[in-house]
Structures are given as structure tokens and as C-alpha cells.
Amino acid sequence: MAGLAIPNQDSQASTDPGPSETVVRATVLRVDATPEALALIQRLEARHGPLLFHQSGGCCDGSAPMCYPRGEFMIGDGDVLLGEIGGQPFYMGKAQFEYWKHTRLTIDVVPGRGGMFSLEGPEGLRFLTRSRLFTDEENAALEATPLGV
Fold it and tell me: Who has the most CB within 10 Å: 8, 27, 90, 106?
């Protein structure tokens, strides 16, 4: 899976723009999901309504992506929106983000019991975060784009 999303073409001003000049900007995703995870998200959304994901920082559920009905987990100034998976927002605490900001997260699903507070538990599956370091190109693009854009 490539580190860059499908490019968007946006008109950009330059010192000598031609009438049809465009610059292709690729968006670097901080979080994405496997097809299996997307299928589970769709099932959970059908059953529970809109969802919200938060990457747990540890404690009783380890460092796992937690899935909640939207509105049942309080997001605040200490949280960072990394993006969306399956149309659902995915957050991480700011302090944890400082350690993970150089990694691309891919949310997957594996058999087993997930976090006790996460909605996928009764499915006999659990969400799992896989990660890889961003490439130099991706890091440069991320530095040029503020978080949340």
C-alpha cells in the first residue's frame, strides 16, 4: 500500500501561470485501514450508528485502537484528529502523538478478544494497529501541511 493518497489537482498560483497550469498535490494519510477492518467498521456502524476511534495509550487495554459509539467518548484539547477510517474519525492523545508522529498507522483486524471497552469485542475480532515510518518524502509533505488539514 503506497504512502500517498490519490492525488488531488488544485489550481495554484505561480510566478508565471499558464491558463491550464495545475499542481498535483498528494495527501499523506496518517491513518488508513485494511479491507477487513473497513468491513468490520461497516458492520459496527450498521449496528451502533456513527463511530469514533481513539488510539489507546496503554493502561488496561494496552496500546490498541478503541472503537466507540460517537458521542460516548469525550474528545478534548488533548486529542489529535489523525484522519478517518471508513468515514469514522480517528483520534490519538497529543502526548502519544509526539511519539508516533513519524509513523503511518494501518488499522487491521485479527481474531481474538479486543479491548474490553471497544465495540468489536463481541465479534470475536479485535482491531490492531500496524505501523511503519513515513518516508522522507512523506515527512516533508507532512511538515508543509498543518495537522488536521
Answer: 90
Query: Cα torsion for 84, 5, 79, 44, to the nearest 10°?
Result: 20
Sign, Cα dihedral of 119, 38, 58, 123? positive
What CATH number is given for 31-144 in this structure? Answer: 2.60.300
Domain range annotation of the chain: 31-144
Average confidence (pLDDT) over 37-64: 87
- pTM here? 0.79
> Which three three-digit cell numbers place residue 101?
508522529
Whether residue 28 contacts residue 137, with contact meaning beta carbons closer than 8 Å, is answered with no
